[in-house]
Amino acid sequence: MKPTETDRFSEKLLRLLDRVEYRRVESGEDMEEVARIRFKAYRMADILPLSGSTLIDDIDFDSHAYVFGIYYEERLISTIRVHHVTPQHRISSSGSVFGEEIDSFLDAGMSLIDPVRLAADPEVLREMPAIPYLTLRVATMASEHFDVDRCLSLVKPQHAAFYKRVFDADTVVTPQSNCGNYNIDLTLLAARVRDIRPWLYKRFPFFNSEGFERRMMFESAETMPFTPLTIRPTARLALSAHARNSARG
To answer: In a 3-state reduction of DSSP, which class is residue 195?
Structure first.
């Protein structure tokens, strides 16, 4: 069967992933690198004020927040922070903007992944426009690892079409202005991650991962036998395992 455009795109992303490493950011030195990437991205897009409290803030260190650097050939190209939000632990960036809507999910007993502070080096992004996919893979892994009900997207209105197309995300809040510290209009979407996971991994296998990769990404040092410095993506391994299982029927 002739490969489709989506097949070719997925293979391209898998080849990029072969040269990517994820690093959990917890040290001060690594946080400085994250702040540098955020500064460059925010200055380019005028997303947030360029102050210390927006480049690194208190909830970067929250117990349910996970900050990652995405490295391509050992160069930091992007960063993301994901929050595991539960009815018992409600701290999140989206909740600080659209608290009523987030609380409605949580009051219904749902758990959420809130991926925010996605920032890419503008110079690298021009050369490698697939960076958002490589970065948002962290959110798909978190959604599966924590087995949440929804994955949120707090984004510019002009980016909403991407999240609807790739993740079949539903609009929760239509575009709003005057969104706290943000200099831009924002909209809130939510993907029904359990429902979309089978076809998402089939269509975009680079989002898939093995359980041990997810554990290295998100489990605490107390529950892991060792803390890895870097984490290599396992999408190809997950794809091979899926192919073997499908062949067995």
So the answer is: helix
As a residue count, the chain comes to 249
CA 112 – CA 139 distance, rounded (Å): 11
Residues 82-98: tens digit of each pLDDT: 999 999 999 999 999 99
Nearest-angstrom CA–CA distance, 57 and 31: 11
Q: What pLDDT digit, counting tens, does each position of 49-69 carry?
A: 777 666 898 899 999 999 999
CB 209 within 8 A of CB 233: yes
Domain ranges for the chain: 5-248
pTM: 0.93
Location of structure tokens 């960076």: 131
Kindly state the greatest CA–CA separation across the chain. 56
Q: Look up the CATH architecture of domain 5-248.
A: 3-Layer(aba) Sandwich (3.40)
